[in-house]
Each structure stands twice: as C-alpha cells, then as structure tokens.
Design goal:
five-stranded mixed beta sheet; about 30% helix; about 250 residues; single chain; 10 strands; Ribosomal Protein S5, domain 2; globular; five-stranded antiparallel beta sheet; alpha+beta; binds uridine-5'-diphosphate
C-alpha cells in the first residue's frame, strides 16, 4: 500500500489492468468437500488466489489449558505457502499470519454455535497456495464453507471480500498491483442473514464518502459470494446423496 506508482491502474474509461470495472470482483470458484481426511474442507479461487481450507472437530482441545468449560474454542492457522508468491515467502508463522489467523477465528466465532461443544476445539487450517491480494478474505470465505461441510452448527456462513482505493478510484476486490500501489484496502466479512459485520479492517487513507462507497461495494459482493458458497455446498451434498443412493 504505497500509494505511488507510474502505472495506470484505472484507465480513462474506468477499466482496471485486469479488465474489470471498478465495482466488479474477480471470478470466484468454490468447491466443498475436497479433502477426504478432514471433517470438512473447501477449495476456493478468486482471480489468481488459490486457497484450501480444512476443518477438524469439534474434538478434544489441546493444549488442555486452552479448554473453555462453557464453549468450544476455534483455533485457526492461516499459512501462506513459500511458493504462493513470486518472491519466495519465508516458510512458517510470522506476525502477519498470526494476525490473520486471529481475526479469522474471531469472525468465525460469531457464527459457530460454540456453546454446544464445551471444552472442545474446532481446528481450522487455511493454506494459501497462490496469493494475489485479498487472501484473508478468500481464506475466511473458504473456511466457513469448510465448517458447514463438516456439519458444524452455525447461524450462517460468512462471505468476505475487500474494497479499497487505487489511482484515486474506489475499487472492489483489489488485485496485487492495486493493493501494492493503491491508497486504501478495506477487508469486510458479514453475516448475510443479518448484515452484521464480523470483520472490518482498514489500511491506508480514504475520505468518509469513499469509505462509505467501498463498504457498499463490499457488502454487495459479500451477498454475491454467499450465493456461490451455498451453491458449492448444495453441489457437494447433491453428489454425496447420489452416491449414497447408488450404494
Ligand atoms: N504478499 C507477499 N508476501 C508476503 C505477504 C503478502 O507477496 O509475505 C502479497 C500477497 O499477494 C498478498 C498481498 O501481498 O495477497 C496482500 O497482502 P495483505 O497483507 O494485504 O493481505 P491479503 O490482502 O492477502 O489479505
């Protein structure tokens, strides 16, 4: 988020470097139940981002001192693979991945009925296989599909997407160049049935009007993603049901 580049990120016709309009998100593809050894899983692509999410649990919480006698805890590990970016990322946890793991777990805690599973742990693993900006939102969107795929009771599933500002324009779903050279990035995650916000961050600067416009765009796109999340789960269950009937 340097805000400085000679690159034209949005041309005079309002078209972005990847051909999108300012209020358009990248193409999204979600598949549920892609890992047979996890209790629930999902694979998600949004533009060039490629993300895998796996869920285990509810299961006994380790380390035991983290157990909560009133509810399950959600332990999330967001990890960016060394090969996920063009400059190799140093493997292992860093401040950024610890922060992202924490905010994703906090967003998921708002929808999972954790009170049904005292002392348990629900473990969520997010692997970023390919990154092109927006991976925390992509990871959270995939993780909530994986939780639903695991059959974990939830109030709703959570879609997430960022909006921001680059080249002086308010843009939906910033790509890597727009994120690197842009002026602001605002990741948002909501509970679509109530429009409650479960994640909102902001990096950079925008006016109040620009912020409101970015938030409006991100809310609309979250509702689009929600439909794709539900469709992925329906496809998985239609396939499973067909398989069971065949047996
Ligand atoms: N990035 C990178 N190396 C890193 C961290 C991030 O190349 O160690 C890139 C990656 O493409 C990522 C983007 O920078 O998607 C934006 O990162 P940010 O921290 O804003 O999180 P994100 O937008 O992925 O949620």
């Amino acid at each position: 988020m340097s805000g400085q580049t000679d690159m034209v990120l949005v041309n005079k016709k309002g078209v972005r470097i990847d051909g999108r309009k300012t209020d358009e998100h990248r193409p999204v593809h979600i598949e549920a139940g892609v890992l047979s050894n996890a209790d629930g899983s999902a694979y998600l692509e949004i533009g060039k981002n490629k993300v895998l999410a796996a869920v285990y649990g509810p299961r006994e919480c380790h380390p035991r001192h983290l157990q909560d006698p009133t509810k399950a805890i959600i332990q999330c590990k967001y990890n960016m693979q060394a090969f996920s970016v063009s400059d190799r990322k140093r493997p292992g946890p860093d401040r950024r991945s610890i922060e992202i793991s924490k905010i994703i777990a906090e967003a998921l805690e708002k929808v999972v009925l954790t009170e049904l599973y005292p002392r348990a742990s629900i473990d969520v693993y997010i692997e970023i296989l390919q990154a092109n900006a927006g991976t925390r939102c992509a990871g959270l969107t995939a993780a909530s599909v994986a939780l639903a795929d695991a059959g974990i009771p939830m109030r709703d599933i959570v879609p997430a997407i960022a909006a921001g500002k680059a080249d002086g324009h308010v843009l939906l779903d910033l790509n890597k160049e727009e994120d690197n050279y842009g002026q602001a990035d605002v990741p948002l995650a909501i509970v679509p049935s109530t429009d409650e916000i479960v994640l909102l961050q902001m990096d950079g600067n925008m006016t109040r009007e620009e912020f409101d416009k970015a938030l409006d765009m991100a809310f609309g796109a979250c509702h689009d993603l929600y439909e794709i999340q539900k469709a992925a789960l329906k496809t998985k269950y239609a396939a499973t049901k067909g398989g069971e009937e065949d047996e």
